[in-house]
Amino acid sequence: MKLSLHFSLFCALCAGVALDCNAEKTASITQNVDHSQPKTPITQEIALATFDETWNTVEQSDVERDHGGVDWVAVKEELRPKAMNASSREELRAILQDMLSRLKRSHFGIIPAESAAALAKEDTPKHADEKTSSESKDGASTAQSALEKFGRAASDKEKVATQESTNASEDQSQTKNKLDNESQTKSDNTSAQKSNRAAEAEASFGLTLRFIEKIPTVTGVRANSPANKAGIEMGWIVKSVDGADMATEQSDANDGTAKYVEELILQGADAGEIDSQETWVFQSKPGELRTTELTRTRSEGISTKLGLLPPFQARCDERILSKEELRALGLPDDFNIAFISFNIWMPAIAQKLDEAFQRHLNADGMIIDLRGNPGGAGGMAMGVAGHVMDEPKSLGAMRTRDTTLEFKVNPRRSTTQGARVEPFSGPVAIVVDPLSASTSEIFAGGLQKLNRARVFGRVSAGAALPAQMKSLASGDALLFAFANFTLPNGSTIEGVGVIPDQITGTHREDWTPNQDPDVTAAARWIVAQYKPQ
Length: 533
Fold this sequence. Notes:
By secondary structure, the protein is an alpha+beta fold.
């Protein structure tokens, strides 16, 4: 089975893999294998078949024919003998991950057999190429087929909700590792009532956590959340969680994947079971520590099932910056600035998102908050961009070796109720951060290069490739990118990210209880667009 996927990185299932992808030699990886865990024996025949299938798939389908300058034949000659001598699936998996890491790109990884088998039981995506590896030996044509199907669905805004939903099902990376660990260690004695409640939806404290100057920092507190009710504020430093030290600085790794996963793990500390309790220690100011007991509650939003994850809460929030906020920023309080945020590109919130934009067509400016949004259904980017663009220009192009798909904006000239309208024509600001990925980057980067929006915040994840999953002889599955994405000016997002026009929020002192530096800068820019030149 092959599934056409559009992930934020390797997908949540591969987040742990990504941490190992910096290894330069297979030996360094295999030395780190946890030998205390039982191993799955593998025959030499299966090991070589798995290795060859992985190598050949990349050779045939990689949109970069020179594999980004990597001598792919030399990699095969180096690692195939090691694969031949692998005695377990786990050892072989490490060798394959080392091979794929040489490409230094997202969306290449090995999904463990257990997760791959569970994925195969899910409903096949609407645009899946359902041929097995034995039925199709041409990786390039398979990639072309998947891209064409993706494009047909993406171009039809009315069908996005039903045709792209499962593409997004693998794109949510923030909480998967933590939820898996909790699932594995959950006590058999947990009450049935609590287990049922935990299965109903994700739960959290309502914290947004990011590394600011390499230090775990609170960069957001959701209104009416447990964190908000406990008095936790933006700018606080996280010192420990249930006694576990959180004050360790972010690594100096230059690898974008490693940094992305570090941010995922940090944000993942917010999520857990409903009613689960933890003791958090914060530094609210130099020399002042605050110890707070927090209890997770059900996250607000539209409950949406995402593959192997428990129901996920897709949220779309909107508001007008208040007069008090504007005055605090030293801005005129008669400006009407709309603030729209959503946490994933999911068809479940498509109508709510449309209505949010349509309610603010007369605003003086719009701020679109994509911080922490890992992506999702790629086709939605074209429809949402149509709320702020009146021409069907391209946000960028996705290319396989043989096919090109243009992400053409679909100008929205009618409301969900059928009333005639024109797209919003005022200033548009987009806010991103290191956990903005995939579709979020296509949307933000495309509008930025079309000079329709100004981007604020911090550099995004740099992961905007479409990928497929392919079963291997070992039982594991190969996740591989089959296309590249370029912005309207020909530049790429992959490995680079969307670079804000104005970098904001990079210093801890920027984050104060009453000031979000990203939104502040965006609001000031919008007001400045109305000043006489």
